[in-house]
Amino acid sequence: MAEDLLTNWQKKSAEHQKQYKNFLSRANKNAVLKKLPELHEAAFEKIDCLTCAACCKNYSPRFKTPDIKRISKHLRMKESEFIETYLDIDNEGDYVGKTKPCAFLGDDNACSIYDVRPSDCARFPYTDEDVILKRPNITLKNSEFCPIVYYVLEKLMS
Q1: Cα–Cα dist 115/38, whole Å
Q2: Are residues 107 and 88 in the same domain?
Q3: Residue 28: enclosing H or E segment and its boundaries?
Q4: Where are the alpha helices (DSSP H) in 47-146?
């Protein structure tokens, strides 16, 4: 069943955007939050991020101050050097990666700074927290490139 659900998932996700939007705007928050941990786990059992890495290839997380401190220390760089080398400021005033794909993404789709990665990366794709409901525009965008978000939304609506 899950394999059928994931067949042509990108096409189906594009077709279901209106349904997702309606669902997210009307969903019973407590009921959804209760289901998320199990659906999140099930999605990660079926989908291997290392076969995809679309998030790392096409988007950048925000690099918050604690992330910059932690990563620059790990890389044995001054924070200013880390910022100058790897980051830009986006139109919302947040630090984001200069390059796409991410400078820390390896050819094997593994992250070279995984243990100290930005908190946005550690939390992505937010399918086990209330961001899925609180920020529906982010959820909708993520459902177009992340099979895990697609899977969780489909299961929530079924």
Answers
A1: 24
A2: yes
A3: none
A4: 54-58, 65-74, 79-86, 119-123, 131-134, 136-145
Which of 147, 130, 152, 157 lies closest to 55 in space, CA to CA?
147
CA angle 131–36–31, rounded 5-degree value: 90
Predicted confidence band of residue 3 (pLDDT cuts 50, 70, 90): low
H helix or E strand, kind and range, residue 64? none
- Domain range holding 109? 62-123
Supply the pTM of this predicted model.
Answer: 0.91
What pLDDT does residue 1 have? 44
The domain total for the chain is 2
Closest among 138, 140, 143, 130 to 30, alpha carbons compared: 130
pLDDT at 64 over 50: yes
Q: What share of the chain is helix, strand, coil (3-state, %, to 5)?
A: 65, 5, 30
9 plus 86 within the same structural domain:
no
